[in-house]
């Protein structure tokens, strides 16, 4: 399964063959069934997780018990709970597969060692974190300032690989609107 992801990894970071092999050797392939959880609220997240195939979502429950989708991840995307990973504290999030999914994971110890040993991987990882932060800022601004229609259109344009692969109630949750509102917008 690493071979499927290798072109993406090579495109993102100019790694030597030996560095790619080291990255592959430290990875673990995990296959998830549809709806299988990768992270449960209350667990400490200690993995770097790359989606080789399939689709996952990061979500949490609000005080009223409604689950709120924060992020989706499809092929060649990373999924993580940054806060739990960084602080080694229990997560308030859940990660689940929305389809049969294959992920590549690295333990925190292995990932930290790889970042120290492979400077180009560290640079790539820092750029990935910066893009993630920027996307979060854009999303927050959209949630607090855009109309429901604008949020919907932006989601369709920004995440075309996600839109047709996830249930509409999850898209509505991600956009911060009811399923009924989303259904009206789609008409």
TrEMBL record:
SUPFAM superfamilies: cAMP-binding domain-like
Segments forming domain Cyclic nucleotide-binding: 30-115
InterPro entries named in the record: cNMP-bd_dom, cNMP-bd_dom_sf, RmlC-like_jellyroll
Highest rank taxon of the organism: Bacteria
Gene3D superfamilies: Jelly Rolls
Pfam family of the protein (one): cNMP_binding
Protein's name according to its UniProt entry: Cyclic nucleotide-binding domain-containing protein
